[in-house]
Specification:
This protein has 174 residues and is α+β, with helices and mostly antiparallel strands. It has one domain: Beta-Lactamase. The protein contains 7 helices and 8 strands, in the order ββαααββααααββββ. Strands 3, 4, 5, 6, 7 and 8 form a 6-stranded antiparallel β-sheet that branches. A two-stranded antiparallel sheet has the order 1-2. Strand 3 and strand 4 form a beta hairpin. The longest helix is centred in the last third of the chain and has 12 residues. The chain is globular. The termini are far apart. Bound molecules: zinc ion. The site of zinc ion has 8 residues, from helix 2.
């Protein structure tokens, strides 16, 4: 089985398919990328994240966003201090995260592919590649549905979340 890093695209060589060690299950990410995630300072991590063309968020074990790359900050029109320690739904401006219960605690959250994918990767270490997901931005009564492809990777207790926007529908009145 030939593996390619899901993040930088580097050829990771051929791995025997019967190898079921944790490495095989968890890491669609090459050694170099893994080392770069925790190379040292926050500045080095930021520089590494900025090398990706797609928006990338880093989420901690409590599902709070720790940091985001330049592309993600542009996408969400937020500066780093406004992103750090927010729930993902608040970064995404999810319509349902604006409900009083907040991101992860509303009746809509059980079916949220973004949250479920992050939590699955946090708990099981399983990485996801280009999982179709969607997001409603705006308010619960007047929202725009945005189609996304999300990729996740657990690295040293945090989850890297890559977001690719597939398209958005016209505003839908509900
Ligand atoms: Zn890589």
């Amino acid at each position: 089985m030939k593996k390619v890093c899901a993040w930088c695209g580097k050829d990771m060589g051929v791995h025997p398919s019967e190898d079921n060690s944790e490495r095989m299950i968890t890491h669609g990410m090459c050694e170099e990328c893994i080392n770069n995630v925790f190379a040292g300072s926050r500045i080095e991590l930021g520089t590494f994240l900025d090398t990706f063309a797609a928006p990338v968020l880093v989420v901690d074990e409590t599902a709070c966003v720790i940091t985001a790359n330049k592309q993600a900050r542009m996408l969400f029109h937020k500066d780093l201090p406004d992103i750090e320690h927010l729930e993902p739904g608040d970064v995404f401006e999810c319509a349902y995260a604006k409900l009083p219960a907040g991101c992860g605690k509303t009746i809509h959250c059980d079916g949220c592919t973004i949250r479920n994918t992050i939590m699955d990767t946090l708990q099981s270490g399983k990485s996801h590649l280009k999982t179709p997901a969607y997001l409603h931005t705006g308010t619960p009564d007047d929202c725009t549905k945005i189609d996304l492809l999300i990729s996740t990777e657990r690295v040293k207790g945090v989850v890297m979340l890559r977001i690719e926007i597939v398209g958005s529908n016209e505003k839908t009145q509900r």
